[in-house]
Inverse folding.
């Protein structure tokens, strides 16, 4: 007798996903967490197994991909779906009360909350400032290192070190540098003005302080990408340019820049996504202050979920953020491809 | 005035000498081909003239001025690169336009200039396209167009035709020659294809291991090779080079032992000093003719391999000393493998080289 | 001395470039050294501070010249928690080991799993390949905070919190998207001819992968490993919430030394960071040659 998964293997495998989702949703709502975890885990492992069985011998690719997918599923996608589910319930991580269904309540709340819009504005401000500063500084640094010269390797490492520091150290030490009494910045300013300099007390100062620290830390990343583009320009193009007596300006725009453009776009994309999530530096440097003037959306989500323990609300908020980032990324990729094609 | 002069040009990379003591002068309207096997320093020589490579020793003069210290921008030259070096993100029209910006022409004037050379090289249809969207032949023509669009001191071409197929190569050869003949500029063309050199050049410089072995008109290098290397390098099929020993010289005629055969050749007077020494006899494949009976100027061997070349047939003949003789016969002359041939040498096309490889004249 | 070696002053300083490319000489070194040092200065100051006594670290004006002390480095590993008390082991030796073990294992694991997956995505595209890839990338786009609560609950339920295996699996998953994207673009750009030739010669798929494809993407592996290492090494939030006393990593422990009633012990903090920086710098320096090639190769065609 033919078994059903031999006749319709792919369909069974695909059907197993919604089935698994359904079973685990039911399990999560009905059973205590310590049981529901293993139930839903088992269901998902089973559906992964169905895929593997289907792929065995037919799709080597499926097998190669399977371990990665399985791990991502357990550690990323499953928690994501979980918190997606939570966003529709009344739930607080620090209470024992079972979740109650809330529908779109939290989405409505988040979208109409003026605080959220304010935090988004702060974030946008910081993103624009820090990303543009990083792009400029990174680009200039890359130009500096584009040519071979003695000791280049060593100097390059010096410039790359900020990127390798831990956020904790960057946050803590920039605080130390900005310190009004013994901080380096204040001391340096005092040489000229005779007064101690308090940077982080004003909104503009706090923003400048954050932007400076973050851009300092991540410009080397932009530099690395741009540098990779710069060194990939074939040498003979510059030789031809010197034979043709092309001005340096035109050389830059017609020869160098096209090679760097795609990498620059990539750096812009990566850095914007990262800056959108800006958390560690802000948290350690200003804790969002003075007041809430530098509280980014990521810091706000953190507060909502870990200080106010409004778990559901923070999940809804996070999903709106994720959605925004995905839409922006897709738009960006779309336009980038559009331009490459023409 | 458009001339190029190189004196004692030398280039070393670390301890390796890529070009050694190159002396060369190219007059106005003259085309000189640099010809030689791969790695002999042709490109390096050209790049030193262009200023893309610093000169280790010697002097480069363009238009009568010493140019050693000047960067390429100031030398006023046009160059076609081996791999075209078209700017990949600029349209073909834009590529051709590039050298014109420096001249301070108006946009309209530039457009006219581009249209003019595009017409000469039949590029009108592709001006809007990017280099990546062109065939090899079109890219090649675009590179040439970019070089001839302005009026430089001299032209440098680095293997301009190396990436084309036989057909295109042939027609481009004609086009370049035609374009150049209308411009009367000093021109250096690097190539490793001797047909290209023989057809395009006024003079050919043959290089080996960084040195110029001989420089002369195509006729000179073919009919009077200065040494064994040039003799072997120029001419297709390759000249037969046979080791022998000079036995006696009498009345301007030498008896030379070539393995089992002995042949009697007329030789220049200088040969008398070489009696009893080893030398090399060079005989072009077309200078051997089958005869009915052996004579004092003939070689004997068995036909081994027959390669038809169209109008002619290349026959490999193995002589008694197991040497391979290449002979070109007219197509009508049928031979069979194994057949014994007596081959008489045309004495006027026979070259004698002494022990050190230099031609004896 | 040949004539062309006489350069103008501007050329010697590396400011005027002779042919637009290539070697810029010692002049550029000087210029770049000044810029690099200014850029490096905050790090340099951290390193200096690591050798200062507490009073020197807070001195006004800042001290460039001082008598260096190693007491901070000693204090990293063992110190007295209150004045007069006996020095105690701080556990930092364990934290350093944890950091090395957790970051090292998870980067290597992500590299192994991710490279296989990338090869699969590149060579055996599934239907909707790009969608899968995009979903994978998406998991990197959201703030860590979004997933942290479910993961936290999940770990607690599954008994994974505070264990090595939990953190390592989490970090592996955290590194995977980047690894897959990067390595896929490398595999995409390899010429299929060599592989086809090897298959025709009768090599098995496994052999083709290990002997032919993998050696060609070495630069990509190196670049991916460096980026992954830098991110994992310094990761803070997950580590804070998911590691236990025995599996704590250095960033978490470092953050905990910041608090305290006598204010921040800057010298101590600097000493920790200095020690903590050394391994990444060494690895980056060793893989530096691959780094640039890796970045270009992997992304230039995107
Ligand atoms: N930048 C360099 N550094 C070291 N050696 C070099 C360099 N450029 C060329 N050479 C060496 O100099 C020699 C001559 O090189 P060149 O490029 O002039 O040869 P070529 O005659 O143009 O050969 P081909 O016909 O293959 O193009 C070669 O042996 C080459 O290896
Ligand atoms: Mg060459």
């Amino acid at each position: 007798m033919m078994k059903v998964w031999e006749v319709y293997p792919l369909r069974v495998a695909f059907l197993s996903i919604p089935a698994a989702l359904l079973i685990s949703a039911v399990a999560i709502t009905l059973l205590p967490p310590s049981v529901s975890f293993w139930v839903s885990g088992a269901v998902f492992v089973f559906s992964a197994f169905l895929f593997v069985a289907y792929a065995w011998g037919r799709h080597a690719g499926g097998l190669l991909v399977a371990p990665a997918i399985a791990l991502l599923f357990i550690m990323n996608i499953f928690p994501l779906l979980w918190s997606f589910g939570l966003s529709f319930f009344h739930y607080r991580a620090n209470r024992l009360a079972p979740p109650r269904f809330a529908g779109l309540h939290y989405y409505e709340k988040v979208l109409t909350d003026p605080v959220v819009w304010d935090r988004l504005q702060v974030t946008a401000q910081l993103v624009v400032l820090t990303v543009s500063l990083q792009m400029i500084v990174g680009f200039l640094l890359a130009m500096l290192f584009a040519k071979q010269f003695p000791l280049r390797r060593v100097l390059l490492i010096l410039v790359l070190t900020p990127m390798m520091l831990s956020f904790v150290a960057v946050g803590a030490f920039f605080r130390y540098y900005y310190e009004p009494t013994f901080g380096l910045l204040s001391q340096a300013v005092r040489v000229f003005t005779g007064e101690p300099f308090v940077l982080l007390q004003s909104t503009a100062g706090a923003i400048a302080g954050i932007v400076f620290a973050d851009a300092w830390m991540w410009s080397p990343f932009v530099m690395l990408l741009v540098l990779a583009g710069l060194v990939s320009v074939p040498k003979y193009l510059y030789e031809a340019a010197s034979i043709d007596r092309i001005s340096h300006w035109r050389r830059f725009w017609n020869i160098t820049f096209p090679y760097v453009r795609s990498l620059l776009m990539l750096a812009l994309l990566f850095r914007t996504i990262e800056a959108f999530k800006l958390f560690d530096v802000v948290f350690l440097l200003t804790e969002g202050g003075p007041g809430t003037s530098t509280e980014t959306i990521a810091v706000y989500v953190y507060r909502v979920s870990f200080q106010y323990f409004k778990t559901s609300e923070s999940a809804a908020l996070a999903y709106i953020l994720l959605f925004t980032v995905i839409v922006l990324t897709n738009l960006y990729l779309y336009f980038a491809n559009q331009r490459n094609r023409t | 005035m458009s001339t190029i002069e190189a004196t004692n040009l030398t280039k070393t990379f670390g301890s390796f000498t890529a070009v050694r003591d190159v002396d060369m002068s190219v007059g106005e309207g003259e085309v000189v081909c640099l010809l030689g096997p791969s790695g002999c320093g042709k490109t390096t020589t050209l790049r030193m003239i262009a200023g893309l490579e610093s000169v280790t020793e010697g002097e480069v003069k363009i238009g009568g001025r010493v140019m050693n210290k000047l960067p390429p921008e100031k030398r006023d030259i046009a160059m076609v690169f081996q791999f075209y070096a078209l700017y990949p993100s600029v349209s073909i029209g834009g590529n051709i336009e590039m050298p014109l910006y420096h001249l301070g022409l108006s946009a309209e004037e530039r457009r006219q200039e581009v249209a003019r050379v595009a017409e000469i090289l039949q590029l009108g249809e592709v001006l809007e396209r990017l280099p990546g969207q062109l065939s090899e032949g079109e890219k090649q023509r675009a590179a040439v167009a970019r070089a001839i669009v302005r009026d430089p001191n001299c032209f440098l071409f680095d293997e301009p035709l190396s990436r084309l197929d036989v057909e295109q190569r042939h027609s481009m050869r004609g086009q370049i020659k035609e374009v150049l003949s209308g411009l009367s500029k000093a021109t250096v063309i690097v190539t490793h294809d001797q047909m290209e050199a023989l057809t395009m050049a006024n003079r050919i410089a043959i290089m080996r291991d960084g040195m110029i072995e001989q420089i002369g008109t195509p006729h000179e290098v073919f009919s009077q090779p200065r040494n064994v290397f040039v003799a072997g390098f120029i001419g297709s099929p390759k000249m037969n080079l046979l080791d022998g020993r000079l036995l006696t010289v009498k009345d301007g005629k030498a008896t030379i032992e070539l393995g089992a055969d002995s042949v009697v050749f007329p030789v220049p007077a200088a040969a008398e000093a070489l009696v009893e020494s080893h030398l090399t006899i060079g005989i072009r494949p077309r200078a051997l003719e089958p005869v009915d009976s052996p004579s004092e100027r003939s070689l004997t061997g068995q036909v081994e391999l027959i390669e038809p070349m169209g109008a002619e047939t290349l026959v490999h003949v193995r002589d008694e000393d197991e040497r391979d003789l290449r002979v070109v016969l007219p197509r009508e002359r049928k031979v069979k493998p194994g057949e014994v041939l007596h081959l008489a040498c045309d004495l006027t096309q026979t070259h004698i080289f002494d022990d050190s490889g230099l031609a004896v004249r | 001395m040949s004539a062309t070696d006489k350069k103008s002053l501007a050329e010697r300083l590396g400011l005027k470039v002779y042919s637009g490319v290539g070697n810029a000489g010692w002049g550029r070194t000087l210029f770049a050294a000044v810029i690099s040092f200014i850029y490096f200065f905050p790090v340099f100051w951290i390193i200096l501070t690591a050798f200062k006594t507490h009073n020197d670290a807070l001195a006004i004006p800042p001290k460039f010249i001082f008598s260096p002390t190693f007491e901070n480095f000693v204090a990293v590993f063992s110190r007295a928690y209150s004045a007069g008390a006996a020095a105690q082991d701080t556990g930092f030796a364990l934290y350093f080991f944890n950091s090395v073990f957790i970051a090292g294992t998870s980067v290597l694991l992500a590299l192994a799993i991710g490279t296989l997956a990338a090869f699969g995505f590149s060579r055996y595209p599934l239907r909707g390949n790009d969608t899968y890839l995009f979903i994978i990338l998406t998991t990197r786009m959201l703030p860590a905070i979004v997933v942290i609560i479910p993961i936290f609950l999940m770990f607690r339920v599954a008994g994974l919190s505070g264990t090595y295996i939990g953190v390592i699996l989490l970090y592996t998953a955290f590194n995977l998207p980047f690894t897959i994207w990067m390595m896929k673009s490398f595999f995409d750009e390899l010429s299929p001819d060599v592989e086809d030739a090897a298959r025709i010669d009768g090599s098995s798929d496994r052999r083709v992968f290990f002997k032919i494809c993998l050696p060609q993407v070495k630069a990509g592996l190196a670049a991916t490993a460096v980026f992954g290492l830098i991110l994992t090494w310094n990761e803070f939030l997950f580590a804070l919430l998911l590691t236990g006393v025995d599996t704590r990593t250095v960033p978490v422990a470092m953050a905990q030394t910041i608090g305290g009633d006598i204010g921040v012990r800057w010298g101590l903090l600097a000493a920790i960071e200095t020690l903590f920086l050394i391994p990444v710098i060494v690895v980056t320096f060793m893989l530096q040659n691959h780094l640039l090639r890796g970045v270009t190769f992997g992304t230039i065609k995107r």
